[in-house]
């Protein structure tokens, strides 16, 4: 099959979107030819049957130029693809859906977000099939919907860690700095534990603010850590290129994610793939974490979070590694990138 992929960015060094590089490489294994049209391109190292075409954001082109280039590329490349996959950006399907229908191209939309807007409603009408990770990650009712899970690169995220091997118990929170992610709760929990005499904890917030309101929230988090005198406990490391993020997980003992119930956060699945215990608030993880030892918070409660962290930080090393191996197996069995791409290709096969 010859496939056209439309995505926001192709850059192996990007902290948020660098994972798409691995997706494209996996599609290249299952397709004769892959053409990628992206808004912006940076560094990449992809197989010879992949061609990457940019709409020009990296050169500072205007939005009108992006639109013109979009139509140029999907028309010029029409003989080089039989099916289309729009990744996350519903506007690609809105802009090109009618043309692809007239050309007889089968179209798919990958979308993982709670938001429903006009663009998504229009994209749903135009797409032949819609892919999402979980029931919570696509809220618009559609007969076209295929719930196929996430795809974790198991070659990159390997179970070669040894939890609890350092003096300090290292906790990470991987993700964009944002109020919706409730990162302040982790700082409050660490303060509770420090006041109880638990002093061997270290926390790294791995991620960066994107929007202005995120910058304001980051300042609030820094001030909160200062207020509790936690500068020796809490560190804001900033962004890490996606290609290097596995090493961040490898050096940790626990991954915390306090996002509200919604889609399955990829950072949690990557943590599990590394054999890393996790604590989450998102109830969508309940089926996946069933039988794994109370790793889901019942409420956004700093005392409850502190209790769960304390239980894990004082657990025997063998118990932590047993939890990690169990979580790793679930990702291997259910969420490999190879299986995800196979499902998409089978659905789009022409």
UniProtKB/TrEMBL annotation:
It comes from the Bacteria. This is Glycosyl transferase family 1 domain-containing protein. Pfam families: Glycos_transf_1. Gene3D superfamilies: Glycogen Phosphorylase B. Coiled coil: none annotated. It comes from Candidatus Falkowbacteria bacterium RIFCSPLOWO2_02_FULL_45_21. SUPFAM superfamilies: UDP-Glycosyltransferase/glycogen phosphorylase (SSF53756). InterPro entries: Glyco_trans_1, Glycosyltransferase_grp1. Residues 161-319 form the Glycosyl transferase family domain. One of its GO terms (molecular function) is glycosyltransferase activity.
């Amino acid at each position: 099959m010859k496939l056209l992929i439309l995505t926001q960015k192709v850059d192996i060094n990007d902290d948020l979107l660098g994972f798409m590089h691995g997706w494209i490489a996996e599609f290249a294994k299952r397709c004769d030819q892959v053409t990628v049209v992206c808004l912006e391109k940076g560094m990449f190292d992809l197989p010879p049957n992949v061609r990457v075409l940019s709409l020009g954001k990296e050169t500072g082109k205007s939005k009108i130029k992006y639109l013109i280039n979009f139509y140029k590329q999907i028309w010029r490349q029409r003989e080089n693809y039989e099916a289309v996959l729009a990744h996350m950006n519903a506007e690609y399907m809105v802009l090109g859906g009618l043309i692809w229908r007239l050309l007889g191209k089968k179209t798919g939309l990958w979308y993982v977000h709670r938001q429903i807007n006009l663009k998504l409603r229009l994209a749903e009408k135009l797409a032949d099939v819609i892919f999402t990770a979980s029931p919570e990650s696509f809220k618009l009712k559609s007969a076209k919907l295929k719930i196929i899970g996430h795809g974790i690169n198991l070659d990159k995220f390997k179970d070669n860690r040894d939890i609890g091997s350092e003096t300090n118990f290292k906790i990470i929170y991987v993700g964009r700095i944002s109020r919706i992610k409730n990162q302040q709760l982790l700082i409050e929990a660490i303060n509770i534990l420090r006041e109880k005499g638990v002093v061997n904890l270290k926390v790294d917030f791995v991620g960066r603010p994107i929007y202005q309101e995120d910058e304001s929230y980051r300042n609030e988090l820094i001030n909160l850590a200062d207020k509790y005198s936690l500068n020796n406990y809490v560190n804001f490391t900033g962004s890490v290129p996606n290609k290097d993020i596995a090493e961040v997980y490898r050096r940790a003992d626990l991954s915390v994610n306090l996002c509200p119930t919604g889609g399955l956060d990829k950072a949690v699945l990557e943590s599990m793939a590394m054999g890393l215990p996790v604590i989450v608030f998102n109830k969508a993880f309940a089926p996946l974490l069933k039988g794994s030892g109370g790793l889901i918070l019942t409420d956004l409660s700093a005392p409850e979070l502190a209790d769960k962290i304390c239980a894990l930080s004082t657990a025997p090393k063998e118990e932590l590694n047993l939890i990690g191996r169990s979580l790793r197996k679930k990702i291997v069995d259910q969420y490999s990138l190879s299986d995800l791409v196979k499902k998409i290709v089978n659905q789009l096969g022409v």
